[in-house]
Amino acid sequence: MTGEYIDEIIKQYQKQYRIMTELGHLTGELESAIQANDRVSIQLVLEMRQQAIHEMEACRRGVIILIDSIPVEQRGHIKGLLSKADDDIPGNAQEELLREKSYKVYEIVRHVIEMDRKLSLKTAGKDSFYYT
């Protein structure tokens, strides 16, 4: 039974990866639109980014719901796989795939946040959310 939940969580992570890839692409498009001072494109890309962020959040909530549906005695192990806490514990092929997908999403989220941070600091300077 847990295997079915893991399959669904893997699907959610694959979807998250696709969304984050698109968000990274949109961040590049936003930078181009800002450089061209194209207000219409800026607004359009910002709206598309917001939609992608909402989709990402829906996926994240879906993963939480799926994890909460797993029997309590197995839930901790799955959470450990997702948080890298169980990295040194070998898992079956399905668990290893879950660990891999989770890590790929983590890495692309970090990458997109860094892209966003650089763009924000470049365009907003001291008014940037990221300014410290």
Portion in strands: under 5%
- The N- and C-terminal alpha carbons lie at a distance of 47 Å
N to C succession of SSEs: HHHH
- The helix content is over 70%
Number of helices: 4
Structural class: mainly alpha
**CATH-scheme architecture:** Up-down Bundle
Q: Could you explain the architecture of this structure?
A:
This is Flagellar protein FlgN. The chain is mainly alpha-helical and 132 residues long. It has one domain (2-127): Four Helix Bundle (Hemerythrin (Met), subunit A) (Up-down Bundle), CATH 1.20.120. The protein is 83% helix and 0% strand. The chain contains 4 helices and no strands. It starts with a helix and ends in an 8-residue tail after the last helix.
Helices and strands, with pairings:
Elements: H1 2-35, H2 39-69, H3 72-83, H4 93-124
Which structural traits does this protein have?
Four Helix Bundle (Hemerythrin (Met), subunit A); 132 residues; 83% helix; elongated; mainly alpha; 0% strand
